[in-house]
Design a protein that fits this description.
CATH architecture of the largest domain: Up-down Bundle
Largest sheet: 2 strands, antiparallel
Radius of gyration: 23 Å
Number of domains: 2
CATH topology of the largest domain: Growth Hormone, Chain: A
Strand content: under 5%
Helix content: over 70%
Shape: globular
Number of strands: 2
CATH class of the largest domain: Mainly Alpha
Structural class: mainly alpha
Order of helices and strands: HHHHHHHEEHHHHHHHHH
Length: 484
Amino acid sequence: MEHAKKASPIDRFLRLFTDVHPGESPTALLLTLNVFLLLSSYYVLKVVREALILTEFGAEVKAYASAGQVLLLAALVPAYGMLASRVPRRRLINIVTIISMACLGVFYLLGEAGLSLGIVFFVWVGIFNVMIIAQAWAFANDVYTNDEGTRLFPLIGFGASSGAVFGSYLSGELESLGITQLFLLAAVILGIALVITNLIDSRERRRTESNVQDIHTSGILPAATDQLRDKTGEFKVAEADYKAESGHFQVIDPKAEPEDEAPKSTGGAMQLVFRSRYLLMIACLMMLLNWVNTTGEFILGDTVAQAAADAVANGTAGDMSEQDFVRNFYGSFFTVVNLVALLAQLFVVSRILKYFGVRVALLILPAIAFIGYTILAFFPILVAVRWAKTAENSTDYSLQNTVRNVLFLPTTREEKYKAKQTIDAFFWRAGDLLSALLVMVGLNILMFETRHFAMFNLVLVSIWILLAVLIGRRYARLTDAAAK
């Protein structure tokens, strides 16, 4: 029915970037704006976070605080899952966002009182980042069918990429504002995003659930139920063929009564991940991805620091100090990475998904990483490290970010809201923890040099590639099972 509509000028314009069907542009643009605002808010806070933690405590304490995020997430993710099993999606998002805004208000008051915020705020921002962004993508997954999401997620991903750039730019332009005023700015941006989320929810409920009794709609049912998004846009309870393809580990009692077809919640957040082969493989892949990437960031940082020291010692740095050399390098590096990621998100990602599919898209980043770290294992010089990480990071921020969210399209609502939080928060941060452990052991016990860290990453990337192949196969079967 949607395809019978006439394409609007906006629909036709957006087709420059992805395959937009008639009538789809309003919700797609609202979701893009929503993610743009959330990432803008986060990057404003990220700048504040770095300023507070580094000036108050230094880089070593910052590393320890990162480990603390994992421990807190282990407690918060199950609590989030319990809430998602009890309230509808709109109320869930409203509660979590309003609590985040209230926290920013508290940070403002404490900052104005002159209290030290570095460690507490650093940990809070790390949790805020993964939970709020994962929630936004879970909502987008809940709104769209598999076909719609595969086509339109590249556009929404552009909102994330451009929001990151805008938030960083905004922080730099508002130097006249104090640190504490940026807390309030971020809270206002969050409030605008929340209004947009509520607007999208109302619009999409009218579009897909107008013929459904209120008691059975997403406005009344909890966010986390064992429902799938049907190809028609309606919700249905997951059937046995889906559960078999997902790889759920189940024990069936032959004396049990037949299952009620009413949607329900079926487990805790962590339990959902460990009882599904599909979700567990995604969790392991995300952990490996971040482990590789974070170790690569260490390789880059160590190489840049050494190059800066050499340049100053040799007199080739001109009037620059080591700090100036490092700052100039990273300014140029981040600019190129973000520009490449934005262009790829606009013109490349949707075409890869359309013409090659998710299974191929999953293999592109690990292939790039494998080539990059192979080069670094033999030529660990700054120019090689820089361009290897540029290719890796820009692909991660564009194609990989879109694909990792597409993977949840054929899952149940419970898996979208609960398991996705577990994977995007706990397992992702676990990759940071493993990287920190590797660096500590590698430097202090194994006496690793740069090439040794690159070689270790090659082993991890090889496992990553195998997981990507297995996930791609199961994704294809799940898509078919969910569409039946």
